[in-house]
Amino acid sequence: MMDIRMTSQRRLLASVLNESNDHPDVETIYQRCKAKDESTSIASIYRSLSLFEDTGLIEKLDMGDGKARFEIKRTDHDHLLDVETGQIHEFKSQELQRLIKEIADEMGFDLTEHRLEIYGRKQGRTACRCYEIKIY
Amino acid sequence: MMDIRMTSQRRLLASVLNESNDHPDVETIYQRCKAKDESTSIASIYRSLSLFEDTGLIEKLDMGDGKARFEIKRTDHDHLLDVETGQIHEFKSQELQRLIKEIADEMGFDLTEHRLEIYGRKQGRTACRCYEIKIY
DNA sequence: ATTAATAGTGATAATCATTCTCATTAAAAA
DNA sequence: TTTTTAATGAGAATGATTATCACTATTAAT
């Protein structure tokens, strides 16, 4: 039954995450910490991010590129990704929150968390698909 | 303006995906193809999965472990993950589908697709967190 | 306070999923 | 057919993440 220790590195990481209003990837988080403490190690960043995630302090986002992005966990909003620009937009929907909890409940589960990303294209623009494929 | 060719390998991959009612990862898909054609290369599996995804034939799922999972795209259902067992449950919700489209629309976007995973614990069980952490 | 016990760190090697390279093969077009 | 060029298989390369390990710092016990 090991216990968790509060260290200067974790305090720094927490403050960096707290000051970040975007959705930084690990490398970016690492650079921001390093700017405040040159001795910061990326290994510790990974370890502490993982720890913070386990404790529910932060949330890991997957935006399709191969790298994890993080933000302080706010269960009250989700994300919409502009497929053209890659820009991330946040949105809140009580109705959605309620519905998701309801669905979990109907299936006999207590909702732990959810992960929703909506992908969309700015209205007015048209998709340009350069090829077509038919199977069979 | 390159065009796409239908090859025996892609036909095989498509049939394997079609016969899969679970959510196999790349390694599993590779093994299933290999069982039918020993000469199957994992590089081609990756290439063709990526192609199929681009064309909208299949859907990539991210279940939190570091590996991508795939299934034939059915826009009519989403997934609930049992955090205790790792088991994936599918569910359908018209209301959810409608709401997501509505949200995108309200934000000025045409919905391209969405990705939703609900995480839950079977009702009745209690979470066992082995530690507690306080920041500040 | 001092010490003892042990969790955390920095540096870097190891891992592992995915992507790239390139010579060869096979579709589709001419 | 022959030509063109996309796709393949094999394996190397990449890049994000994880593991290792000697050392340091935090917490608990004295």
Walk me through this protein's architecture.
Two copies of one chain form a homodimer. Chain A has 136 residues and is α+β, with helices and mostly antiparallel strands. Chain A folds into two domains: 1-73, Winged helix-like DNA-binding domain superfamily/Winged helix DNA-binding domain (Arc Repressor Mutant, subunit A, Orthogonal Bundle); 75-122, Ferric-uptake regulator, C-terminal dimerisarion domain (Dna Ligase, domain 1, 2-Layer Sandwich). The first copy, chain A, contains four helices and five strands; from the N terminus they run αααββββαβ. A three-stranded mixed sheet of chain A has the order 4-3-5. A two-stranded antiparallel sheet of chain A has the order 1-2. In chain A, a hairpin with a 5-residue loop joins β1 and β2 (68-72). In chain A, α1 (8-19) packs across α2 (26-36). Chain A is globular. The first copy, chain A, starts with 7 loop residues before the first helix and ends in a 14-residue tail after the last strand. The interface between A and B is large, with 49 and 49 residues. Chain A binds a DNA duplex (30 and 30 nucleotides) through α1 and α3.
